[in-house]
Write a structure and sequence with these properties.
Blueprint lengths: L7 E5 L2 H4 L38 H4 L3 H15 L3 E5 L2 H4 L10 H16 L3 E7 L5 H7 L6 H16 L6 E5 L11 H4 L4 H5 L13 H25 L4 E7 L2 E4 L4 H24 L6 H7 L11 H9 L4 E5 L3 E4 L31 H14 L5 E5 L17 H19 L5 E7 L19 E3 L11 E3 L1 H11 L7
Helix pairs in contact: 3-5, 7-10, 10-13, 14-15
The structure holds 6-O-phosphono-beta-D-galactopyranose.
The site of 6-O-phosphono-beta-D-galactopyranose has 15 residues, from loops.
């Protein structure tokens, strides 16, 4: 049998994409609350002040805050062993720099974890899934200010102490490597005064951060993550605390050695850089080369002995990653593809989703092998994988999402081969969006990932009712059979 008996089968969500209740029970605003909805051709706009009467996807999302019992019962019905979710930092410390945590926020997650435990579902908790309290962005420019390191560690420690007997698996920052490109806004929380004052509302990917500020902020996140790992292990030595990387596997488009070298550099920059710091506890040899190519001139963080010692001590216990697609890179002329933050050129051998994400199950097996060799003895977990599609509700309410079943089946087969044939130490798999939820990239509900359909739409209509898609029954069977019955 390929998948071990205790394999962590399940699904993954993020607070800002599912909870809603954006100001309830003392929650403060977070960065995601400042983003309007977009779609495949219209980028989301960042709005420095909330406009009344305008639809902001995270504000109500799918109302998980009030419906978590029903949702967790549905996950249990599918046989979930694990549920990945994030804690909304601004529910615990509404402004990020508060002296005391918000008890109502802490209580909410107590209830959620208790509900999971009731069904024997292991929570896997992300501490920061693009959810930096908005006040931290306004007052401190996010993680570019070193004081935010302590705010994060205080928040993490509060959570570790409170939930030490309910949660064993933790992740510090979601897709930390996304801070390397795009605006970095969601990841590092940096918004400049100028952008804050700009009422014209720029598309979020146009918020520009000076490279030196961006990498200083990323360095501060590494330190914050390492400190959290150190503190977490003091609170409960059994904690498994991991990093989370958006793994954007990249192939050279041609065998031209120039493409191959560029491919290596791209992989190092996009994926290996952050993983190496987290898992090996030190900056890799190519740090200066790659960061200077990306505009960095201030490398003083490499001289900070105290920080480097913390990074070394606070190595993660496991490596987790999201995997949706692969891309290519080339030094020749080629057509650009789309991507989840990181872009690349099109691969002529692959099909893409309607959002342009190239589907590549075999690439997952390849990626798992790369990671197993790069980080020996480090448990690996795929914590996001799935297909965002447009679902059609039939007259009788059924949803025949065969495309989703196919996508997941092929990726599960690839994981199975990676474990069974290649010997990769994979410990779990949580699909992205086991229940439809707000898209992170576009803010849409139209782009759906779930086994569970949610009646909620981009114009703000819908009664939030939940229903089972065909994939619901398929995934249940898959889990029941430990990944053997995939038909
Ligand atoms: C990852 C994020 C998730 C999630 C997913 C799918 O980058 O960690 O939050 O949303 O991508 O992306 P999207 O929602 O844009 O389809």
């Amino acid at each position: 049998m390929a998948f071990p008996k205790n394999f962590l089968w399940g699904g993954a969500v993020a607070a800002n994409q599912c909870e809603g209740a954006y100001l309830e029970d003392g929650k403060g605003l977070n960065d995601a609350d400042m983003l309007k909805g977009g779609n495949v051709s219209t980028p989301r706009k960042f709005s420095p002040e909330i406009e009344q009467g305008v639809y902001y996807p995270s504000h109500e999302a799918i109302d998980f805050y009030h419906r978590y019992k029903e949702d967790i019962a549905l996950f249990a019905e599918m046989g979930f062993k694990c549920f990945r979710l994030s804690i909304n930092w601004a529910r615990i410390y509404p402004n990020g720099d508060d002296a005391e945590p918000n008890e109502a926020g802490l209580k909410f997650y107590d209830n959620v974890f208790d509900e999971c435990r009731k069904y024997g579902i292991e929570p896997l908790v992300t501490l920061c899934h693009y959810e930096i309290p908005w006040n931290i962005s306004v007052k401190y420019h996010g993680f570019s200010d070193r004081r935010v390191i302590d705010m994060f560690v205080k928040y993490a420690t509060t959570c570790f102490r409170r939930y030490k007997d309910k949660v064993k698996y933790w992740l510090t920052f979601n897709e930390i490597n996304c801070a390397l490109v795009g605006s970095g806004y969601n990841g590092i929380g940096v918004v400049t005064d100028e952008e804050y004052a700009d009422k014209s509302q720029r598309p979020v990917d146009e918020l520009k951060v000076d490279p030196n500020v961006r990498y200083a902020a990323l360095h501060n996140e590494f330190v914050a993550s390492a400190k959290a790992v150190i503190e977490g292990h003091k609170i409960n030595p059994d904690f498994m605390i991991g990093c989370m990387i958006a793994h954007m596997t990249n192939y050279p488009l041609t065998p031209d050695p120039k493409d191959v070298l560029q491919g290596l550099n791209t992989m190092n920059f996009m994926n290996n850089f952050c993983g190496d710091v987290h898992v090996r506890g030190e900056y890799p040899h190519y740090t200066k080369k790659l960061l200077s190519e990306n505009g960095v001139t201030d490398f003083s963080f490499l001289e900070n002995e105290e920080d480097l010692a913390i990074i070394k001590e606070g190595k993660v216990d496991m490596y987790t990653f999201s995997y949706y697609m692969t891309n290519c890179t080339t030094t020749h002329e080629a057509e650009l593809g789309a991507g989840n933050v990181f872009m690349g050129v099109k691969n002529p051998y692959l099909q893409a989703s309607p959002w342009g994400w190239q589907i590549d199950p075999l690439g997952l097996r390849y990626t798992l092998n790369l990671l197993a060799s790069r980080y020996p003895h480090t448990p690996l977990m795929v914590v996001e994988n799935g297909l965002g599609m447009i679902d059609k509700v039939e007259e009788d309410g059924s949803i025949h999402d065969t495309y989703r079943i196919e996508y997941l089946r092929d990726h599960i087969k690839a994981m199975k081969d990676a474990i069974e044939i290649d010997g990769v130490p994979l410990i779990g798999y949580t699909t992205w969006g086991p229940i439809d939820l707000v898209s992170c990239g576009t803010g849409e509900m139209y782009k759906r990932y779930g086994f569970i359909y949610v009646n909620r739409h981009d114009d703000g209509t819908g009664d939030y009712s939940r229903s089972r898609k065909d994939s619901f029954f398929w995934y249940k069977k898959c889990i029941e059979s430990d990944g053997e019955d995939l038909d």
